Amino acid sequence: MNSGKTTIYLVTIVVEGGLALAAYTYAHFRGLTWQWAITWQNLLLAIALTLPLVALNMILLWKKLNEFYFYQHTHEFIKTIVKPFCDALSYKDVVFVSICAGIGEELLFRGVLLPEVGIFFSSFLFSFGHFGSKAFYYKFMAILYFFIGLYFAWIYQKTESMFLIISIHSMYDFIAIAYLKKYRTGS
User: Fold this and answer.
1) What confidence tens digit (pLDDT) does each residue in 71-99 have?
2) How many domains does the chain have?
3) Is 57 domain-assigned?
4) 89 Cα distance to chain centroid
5) Residue 187 maps to a domain
6) pTM above 0.85, yes or no
7) DSSP-assigned letters across all residues of 21-85
8) Are 146 and 131 in contact (CB under 8 A)?
């Protein structure tokens, strides 16, 4: 394994594993419980509920959007940050990163923060967690991640299935990263 992949694996384990550990620890002390509902029906539902996110991704990567001023920073974000990350991963790595992100982020943002601070603030934190101090610079993407956070929170509130929401998040990440590995960013 080269040093770049080692770094990606270590960062994934530390960050996403840290989120999962923090969520589990907090939930344990606060008495929060999660329902898993691991069923074939939930897996099929996860596939169906992932499709709108995949469609959104295809729209965002539509070349014509690059012409709009509001989208320029988004194109830069994809080209300089996301695409190189995706290109560095093998498909086996994509599976690992996607599952870890789904588990760590959903346990924290939907499993702990949603019941503690509500749908809007947990979605804001989900967006801010992805962009941090760059949220204003990449405001279009930060707003988009806020709405993705709302979508995930809405699904979790309706189903109360941690398995379902982790599956949706992981599938979306896998499809998005796998697609971006093949995507040509252009200029």
Assistant:
1) 677 777 878 888 888 888 899 999 999 99
2) 1
3) yes
4) 16
5) no
6) yes
7) HHHHHHHHHHT--------HHHHHHHHHHHHHHHHHHHHHT-GGGGGSGGGHHHHHHIIIIIHHH
8) no
